[in-house]
């Protein structure tokens, strides 16, 4: 079981070391795609992930987390292989669908595999520390990939996609060599009604689990939302593209470094004060960034990513602590599903608001929205705990 942990690190690196991110829009445009085509592709990717998020988590619980991770890793590699040989919308569409399905099979299964591996070793109390390290490795990989991808693009814009195929391949042998901690357990009964039963249990019957999921989802949606505002925010400050790339790398390094100490912060503050800190830090990050349209706002972004480094592993740990192993991947997939649904509603609205007013007011509005949603869900979570 202890050997699972470094293999999960490799899977995370293969998933997050995205050489293509710095140049993907330029690559699309070089191959004749308009911005509408680009956004359509990303919309289809999100739909593919959302549609399969909960079913894939359920399949992981029934079929086995290892098999789910192997399938997701194979599809993740295949998607970039298709990208490497494609040169038009239809080829890119096939690649995005493959990547979306692959991502859904890894999402939730990796965290469930980590927690159950530690549980089998009677080390489940170390989950937060290990989840923080896995997240940190992912963010370090994402930061370094931004620099490496830009360098490879000097050869050609297709070169990062070719190299990305090899990076993604690393996850395949790593996932095959995993040992499923629940391989001898009694499997759940497969069926759509049972999926609905687990969803109903986690979001309706069990108040404690419900509000932990909702609170974690609100914060997850907030961190995802701000990520899409960073580039236009820095561009409004008249920064060069190269400077934006450096700041993006440093922000991801901030998350990675902070995540390493997330368990210590949670132990010191306790659950209630940690939750309050997260709500104020995340919503305040939006508001202060919108208020200070200057280099002070850039400093606030680093504070926001500091809070994010604590929030993500800590809130996942809260959910894992109160979830049974046989439904863990499904429950974590419910969380990811809610994050994407919330983003699909809030994100476009904030985008429309930005177009009709300005970026600063949109950030202030976003901070207000997440303060209200985060505060309400935190209050209900605290009541359910008591």
TrEMBL record:
Q: Where is the signal peptide?
A: none
Regarding the membrane, this protein is recorded as:
Multi-pass membrane protein
Localization per Swiss-Prot or TrEMBL: Membrane
The domain of life is Bacteria
GO molecular function per UniProt = transmembrane transporter activity
InterPro entries linked to this entry: MFS, MFS_DHA3_Transporter, MFS_dom, MFS_trans_sf, Sugar_transporter_CS
Principal subcellular localisation of the protein: membrane
Keywords for this entry?
Answer: Membrane, Transmembrane, Transmembrane helix
From the record, give the transmembrane residue ranges: 9-28, 43-62, 69-86, 92-115, 136-155, 161-179, 209-230, 242-262, 274-292, 298-316, 337-353, 359-381
Every copy of the Major facilitator superfamily (MFS) profile domain together lies at 1-386
A Pfam cross-reference name: MFS_1
A single Gene Ontology CC term? membrane
What is the official name of this protein in its record?
MFS transporter
Q: Which organism is it from?
A: Labilibaculum euxinus
């Amino acid at each position: 079981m202890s050997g699972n942990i470094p293999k999960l690190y490799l899977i995370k690196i293969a998933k997050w070391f995205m050489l293509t991110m710095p140049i993907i829009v330029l690559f699309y445009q070089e191959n004749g795609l308009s911005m509408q085509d680009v956004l359509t592709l990303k919309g289809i990717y999100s739909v593919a992930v959302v549609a399969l998020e909960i079913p894939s988590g359920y399949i992981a619980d029934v079929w086995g987390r290892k098999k789910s991770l192997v399938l997701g890793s194979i599809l993740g590699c295949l998607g970039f292989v298709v990208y490497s040989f494609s040169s038009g919308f239809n080829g890119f569409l096939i690649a995005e669908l493959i990547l979306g399905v692959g991502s859904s099979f890894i999402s939730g299964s990796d965290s469930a595999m980590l927690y159950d591996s530690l549980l089998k070793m009677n080390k489940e109390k170390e989950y937060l520390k290990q989840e923080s390290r896995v997240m940190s490795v992912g963010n370090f990989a994402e930061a370094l990939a931004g620099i490496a991808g830009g360098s490879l693009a000097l050869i050609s814009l297709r070169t990062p996609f070719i190299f990305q195929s090899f990076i993604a391949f690393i996850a395949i042998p790593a996932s095959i060599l995993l040992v499923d901690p629940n391989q001898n357990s009694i499997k759940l009964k497969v069926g759509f009604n049972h999926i609905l039963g687990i969803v109903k249990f986690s979001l309706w019957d069990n108040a404690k689990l419900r509000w932990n999921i909702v609170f974690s989802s609100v914060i997850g949606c907030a961190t995802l939302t701000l990520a899409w505002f960073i580039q236009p925010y820095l561009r409004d400050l008249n920064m060069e593209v190269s400077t934006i790339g450096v700041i993006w790398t440093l922000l991801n390094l901030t998350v990675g470094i902070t995540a390493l100490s997330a368990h210590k912060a949670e132990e010191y503050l306790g659950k209630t004060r940690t939750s309050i800190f997260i709500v104020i830090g995340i919503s305040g990050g939006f508001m202060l960034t919108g208020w200070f349209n200057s280099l002070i706002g850039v400093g606030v972004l680093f504070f926001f990513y500091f809070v994010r480094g604590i929030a993500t592993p800590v809130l996942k740990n809260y959910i894992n602590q109160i979830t049974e192993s046989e439904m863990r991947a499904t429950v974590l997939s419910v969380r990811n599903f809610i994050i994407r649904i919330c983003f699909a509603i809030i994100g476009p609205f904030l985008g429309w608001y930005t177009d009709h007013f300005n970026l600063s007011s949109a950030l202030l509005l976003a901070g207000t929205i997440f303060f209200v949603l985060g505060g309400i869900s935190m209050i209900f979570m605290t009541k359910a705990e008591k």
